[in-house]
Amino acid sequence: MTSSPKPNPAASGSGPSADGPLLSLRWAENKLLLLDQRLLPGEIVFLELTTPEEVWDAIHGMKVRGAPAIGIAAAYGVVLGALRYAGAPAGWLPAVNQAAAHLATSRPTAVNLFWALGRMKERAEALSAGPDADNLAALTQGLLEEAKSIHLEDEEVCRRIGESALPLLKDGMGVLTHCNAGGLATARYGTALAPIYLAHEQGMTLRVYADETRPVLQGARLTAFELQQAGVDVTLLCDNMAGMVMQKGWVEAVIVGTDRVAANGDVANKIGTYSLAVLAKAHGIPFYVASPLSTIDLDTESGKDIPIEERPDTEVTEAFGKRTAPEGIKVFNPSFDVTPNELVTAIITEKGIVRAPYRESLARLFADK
Ligand SMILES: CSC[C@H]1O[C@H](OP(=O)(O)O)[C@H](O)[C@@H]1O
């Protein structure tokens, strides 16, 4: 793996980048070029990944993060596993499945990882039973086309989520968001941030309040960065300030992303989302979840069945390169929490806005597919 650093113009206060929005990843010359999101906003470093193990490490280490971006990266990771295989054609499918199985262990909560890997395995199965079964190059080219389709589809899906959500926004509105569900969490545009970008493009003035989102600070480092680059009015908050801005009447809607929506409409999202939903309820503020269909998992009955990732203690006990807690302190560091469906005002998808009763309305989404 190599990297290609360049200074971040926004970090030096020189305003939006001349190259347009930063994309989380792209495929070029049989490599996955991945923006190392751990280094934002101060440094823009693209990693060149050439093996599925490097992709596993990038997902596990949150160099790439965000449910759709994780799924897209994993899809390309499977292609890297196929490119590496040079044995007899009969061994190609097992090699592909082995790469997919390894990538499936990188993080447990975002269902897009498993959804994307499932698509790649289905396509590999079909290719290996097809006319090019003995042609490794053709097999791998077909697999690359599937990964590229997943990547391109996500960009279109996010744009349509923005369009679905637009009627919920009005000029001058205050919107609070949590973590990063922007372009850096997806192929482009984002999910929760897609309507904000679209509204901005259409000349609507929104006031966005971005929770910093401890402990990994996706809100401060990524959402505030993205929105600032795009010229959107964004105010950074510590997570414990969300209640006060609601109390002051500055927020008229909360819009967040998600990592997995269960069949009953329970929502897994970044830790702190549940608290926001309770606060929103207490203040009579609508709480919206932006979710592509690829993040809705009808095979998971309810929120209690969603695996919640627990991450290293050091994310909590260290910050800015220094210890911020005593040595040996006990730490609880769940990366996600579950918001019960009764606190979710609506789920915004690329096929429109879905409301309770969610078990029925979500099932209809997929029935009409
Ligand atoms: C559009 S998915 C964004 C979703 O993913 C984030 O989690 P992480 O940064 O740990 O991958 C967070 O839950 C966001 O809402």
TrEMBL record:
Pathway noted in the entry: Amino-acid biosynthesis; L-methionine biosynthesis via salvage pathway; L-methionine from S-methyl-5-thio-alpha-D-ribose 1-phosphate: step 1/6
Residue numbers annotated as active site: 259 (proton donor)
Keyword Amino-acid biosynthesis found: yes
Single GO term (MF): S-methyl-5-thioribose-1-phosphate isomerase activity
Purpose: Catalyzes the interconversion of methylthioribose-1-phosphate (MTR-1-P) into methylthioribulose-1-phosphate (MTRu-1-P).
Family classification: Belongs to the EIF-2B alpha/beta/delta subunits family. MtnA subfamily.
Name of the protein described by the UniProt record: Methylthioribose-1-phosphate isomerase
